[in-house]
Each structure stands twice: as structure tokens, then as C-alpha cells.
Request: fold
Amino acid sequence: MRAGLQEKSLTLPLVIPIQKILPWAILGGMIFSIAMYFVGAEGGAFSSLGGMTVHEWVHDARHLLGFPCH
Reply:
């Protein structure tokens, strides 16, 4: 090999089977859904908790994501 030239190494893509991703995707989807409920609906018409505590905790996030609250 000449000076200044390097051998090119072959890189293969990482293959992850769907069986390993699916449980994490389901868990992430459930966490996302719960978070969107608390940001978007809690403290509103479909409130499952009494009072406005959760609404006040996520008030700025509601506006950032475009949810009307007042």
C-alpha cells in the first residue's frame, strides 16, 4: 500500500429484528398517549381528576402544542 492511501472498510447496516423493537415501540406509544392526555385533555371537558392542578402543571405545554385552554 502506498503512503497516504488507506484501505476502505466495508460497513454493514445494523439489522434489528422487529421482535426486539415492538415491545419498546408499544411502551413508548403508551407513554406518549398518557402524556398527550394530560397535556391536552386533563383539566378540560374530559377531566378524570378533580381540580385544576394537573392543568396548571402542563399549562405552558398546552399553549406550545396548540391546545386551547382559555
Q: What stands out?
A: The chain has a mean pLDDT of 78.
